[in-house]
Amino acid sequence: MAGRNQTAVTEFLLQGLPIESEQKNLFYALFLVMYVTTVLGNLLIIFLIRLDSQLHTPMYLFLSNLSFSDLCFSSVTMPKLLHNMQSQVPSIPYAGCLTQMYFFLFFGDLESFLLVAMAYDRYVAICFPLHYTTIMSPKLCLSLVALSWGLIRLHAMLHTLLMARLCFCADNVIPHFFCDMSALLKLSCSDTQVNELVIFIMGGLIVVIPFLLIITSYARIVSSILKVPSARGIRKAFSTCSSHLAVVSLFYGTVIVLYLCPSADNSTVKDMVMAMMYTVVTPMLNPFIYSLRNRDMKGALGRVFCRKKTPFSV
Ligand SMILES: *[C@@H]1O[C@H](CO)[C@@H](O)[C@H](O)[C@H]1NC(C)=O
């Protein structure tokens, strides 16, 4: 155990991104634009789906949840990053750091669970089109969302409590732009074996199981299309799945590159660039992937904004 007579760390310093000072303003503007785009894009999706009753289907309700999750996920790190880029002392209080870690895990997991729910929804829509409305009932959708919230709350709480047990001694500089769990573990002067074990096991479960479920859904979709191959069936499956597949690839692509590719000497820089990818770029792109490719969303945009003069009746 670390000595009891050491003063406990009450705040951390976030070292931030390795940006040279001449370029600071440029990057600040870039990140600000990206963050504002993320917030507006996702709010627009939530707003459209809420207002347009034709989009009150499981697929769009999950998408609306995904947008909410993207919005929150990016808001966990971006405002603090932007604030710290402008401040002299980029500090974060100890409790703030743990809170950030909790919500980072929470919304990151939520994203992955929602992608599974969406894959299952596409699987039912393509393989059992006639039973779609009975299988994907509002009750099932709500249960899937509630189950995800329950599980990820436990997961995020487990890691946060395990982190709260650790002691932090002299070194309080986090070489990252947010309170990243592995960066915090490296700083700690307690024994972190239990934490590492739990991260390894839970990380495996939380990443690998959803990934396998998604792969299984798509394998079933592909095999059901191949049984009765027709140009129309393929086109229909492709048009309903392509957006989801693009989002899944973006999300898991980053995770796989981050965790499975061997890291070089400058691994902190690589970690940070990849973290930028999934905290900023992915949440920003998701609304575009869904709205640009999607006729329903464009239709909703037209319907919602072109009948502005009459009050909404949903
Ligand atoms: C999330 O999904 C549930 C279940 O389909 C739905 O009732 C709820 O309105 C959605 N929440 C948001 C913010 O879209």
Could you explain how this protein is built, in words?
- By secondary structure, the chain is an all-alpha fold.
- The protein has one domain (9-313): Rhodopsin 7-helix transmembrane proteins (Rhopdopsin 7-helix transmembrane proteins, Up-down Bundle).
- The protein is 74% helix and 3% strand.
- The chain contains 10 helices and 3 strands.
- The chain has helices at residues 24-51, 58-86, 94-127, 132-135, 138-164, 181-187, 193-227, 231-260, 267-292, 295-306; strands spanning 11-14, 91-93, 173-174.
- It has a 3-stranded mixed beta sheet.
- Helix 8 runs antiparallel to helix 9.
- The protein is globular and about 65 Å long.
- The N and C termini lie far apart (60 Å).
- The model is unreliable at 1-5 (pLDDT under 50).
CATH fold-level label: Rhopdopsin 7-helix transmembrane proteins
Question: Please, how many helices?
Answer: 10
What is the makeup of the main sheet?
3 strands, mixed
* CATH 2nd-level architecture: Up-down Bundle
Gap from first CA to last CA: 60 Å
Spatial strand sequence of the major β-sheet: 2-1-3
Number of strands: 3
Structural class: mainly alpha
Supply the number of structural domains: 1
> Cα-atom Rg, whole angstroms?
22 Å
Q: Give average pLDDT, whole number.
A: 85
Unreliable residue runs: 1-5
Strand content: under 5%
Anisotropy-based shape: globular
Query: Could you state the oligomeric state of the chains shown?
Result: single chain
Bound molecules: 2-acetamido-2-deoxy-beta-D-glucopyranose
Query: What's the CATH H-level homologous superfamily?
Result: Rhodopsin 7-helix transmembrane proteins
Membrane topology: Multi-pass membrane protein
InterPro entries: GPCR_Rhodpsn, GPCR_Rhodpsn_7TM, Olfact_rcpt
Subcellular location: Cell membrane; Membrane
Function: Putative odorant or sperm cell receptor.
